[in-house]
Amino acid sequence: MRHLAYVSVLAGCLFGALWLEPVLKVGVLRRWRRLLLTVLPVAAVFVLWDLAAIAAGHWHFDASQMTGVVFSGGLPLDEVLFFLVVPVCAILGFEAVRKVLRRPDE
């Protein structure tokens, strides 16, 4: 089970944030194009950054805690998922706070 540690943490983050969508009706997942336009460019930059750090020998991953799926350049699937899951959870949290405080969308 240790090989699922990274993915389990990401699943926990999603579990802790996804309930905000139906309960508070924050509308983040409903506006999926907006969400993708927000998350994907940033994720792409960080994927490139990780690839550069891996190539330079500055960054590595503990294979015993990863799923074992590794893309070219040595970037694990788990890390790519991190760059997608964590921002989505953060946006859900941000929009939930905005909803509770009754702040208008900008």
Salient structural properties:
single chain, 106 residues, 4 helices, elongated
Q: What would your notes on this structure say?
A:
The chain has 106 residues and is mostly helical. It is built from 4 helices and no strands. The longest helix has 24 residues. The chain is elongated and about 45 Å long. The mean pLDDT is 94.
Write the layout of secondary structure elements.
Layout: H1 5-18, H2 20-24, H3 32-55, H4 77-100
Helix pairs in contact: 1-4, 3-4
Would you kindly provide a brief summary of this structure?
This protein has 4 helices and no strands.
Summed over residues and divided by their number, the pLDDT gives a mean of 94
Number of strands: 0
How would you sum up the major sheet? none
| Class from helix and strand fractions | mainly alpha
Q: What is the H-and-E element order?
A: HHHH
CA(first)-CA(last) distance: 43 Å
Rounded to an integer, what's the Rg over CA atoms?
A: 16 Å
Strand content: under 5%
Helix content: 55-70%
The coarse overall form would be elongated
Low-confidence residue ranges:
none
| SS summary, helix count | 4
